[in-house]
Design a protein that fits this description.
Number of helices: 2
Largest sheet: 5 strands, antiparallel
Radius of gyration: 13 Å
Structural class: mainly beta
Order of helices and strands: HHEEEEE
Helix content: 10-25%
Length: 101
């Protein structure tokens, strides 16, 4: 297990889920916290009463860099339930204003 996997709490099963070709539900939310260490939290109306953890490595390559993120930014992501840890956001895309038109 790599350091990133330990930090994120990923297991072999999580990796297999991440790499599976099945289409997953994508939901929208807003960034509510960003840490200089490379992680943050998202909130979503679709998953009520929870803060959804994300790590910079979960950002899509075609989106903004982690240092460019700001609180309140709209995002689209796939929720991943991690046993004993809660919901994680993966494959995060920042929704810029032109994306919403």
């Amino acid at each position: 297990m790599t350091l990133i996997e330990r930090l994120l709490g990923r297991s072999k099963e999580d990796e297999e889920l991440n790499d599976s070709p099945q289409v997953r539900e994508r939901i929208t939310g807003k960034i509510i916290k960003i840490s200089p260490e490379g992680w943050g939290f998202i909130t979503s109306k679709e998953i009520k009463f929870t803060r959804i953890f994300f790590h910079w490595s979960a950002l899509n390559q075609d989106t903004l860099h982690f240092t460019e993120l700001e609180r309140g930014m709209e995002v689209e992501f796939e929720p991943l339930e991690v046993s004993g840890k809660g919901v994680r956001a993966i494959r995060i895309k920042i929704l810029l204003e032109e994306d919403n038109e």
